[in-house]
Amino acid sequence: MPLFAGKSITPLTKANAKSDIPVGLWLKCKDCDQIIYQTALDNAFQVCPLCGYHYPLSAQKRIELLADNGTFQEMDRDMSSCDPLSFAGDNSYSDKIVETQGKTGLKDAVISGKCHIGGIPSAICVMDFRFFGASMGSVVGEKITRLIEYATRARRPLVIVSASGGARMQEGILSLMQMAKTSAALMKLDEAKLPFISVLSNPTTGGVTASFASLGDIIFAEPKALIGFAGPRVIKQTTKAELPKGFQTAEFLLEHGFIDQVVSRNKLKNAIVQVISAWKLD
What we know:
There is one protein chain. Helices cover about 35% and strands about 15% of the residues. By secondary structure, the protein is of the alpha/beta class. It folds into two domains: about 1-55, no CATH class; about 55-280, 2-enoyl-CoA Hydratase, Chain A, domain 1, CATH 3.90.226. The strands form two sheets. A seven-stranded mixed beta sheet has the order 3-4-5-6-7-8-9, sandwiched between helices. α4 links the parallel β5 and β6. The longest helix is centred in the middle third of the chain and has 20 residues, at about 170-190.
């Protein structure tokens, strides 16, 4: 049964395909190999309506999915990374930032703000993998920390949706410092007895996994999401051992107690509302 019931989905086959279909109108699913219409994928928030495969989702669309309609107010919108280490390479880090900002319409790899989720005043932060693989630089760490501090002051539940390749190498030790900074802010949120729901999407790796993403009171993950610190190839080369089947998938980590629940994207908002509505926020 399709994940998004109520949407009429017809797989594209040789029998009903037309030679004059415009490019980009349909695509082949990476998981089930079926041909699906791009509009059907867009309407289902980038989830294959035939097999449930979860494609990447932009931060803006993720907020549209989770926040109540018209309630999201972005915070720290204009924060942008600089080049503190004068990082050298084929192109300067500063030039790459400007180029990526132009391509994505984002200032950096995270959007944060306040909203209502299921009618409950909340704070939400969403990472966007299109921006430098959502690597955690100074701006990402600062925006997340500021939102955590806001949630603590305003006594709002906190939701962070992670998707990251890890630390941003162009910022060196300054990037690694964000792990400690975000974790320390979450300790204050915990002392205030406020809920933090961490949502892990594909992929969530490196320093993000090793810091705030793993500190949720409740940790949800999307189906088949890659979650870990180092990649499977690096681990295999280091340990000289064969890794278990499905290693570092959301399902494997659920079985071994690292996360609390694997939740399909269309059910994620309801799962979050269940948690925050049961929490005593007074």
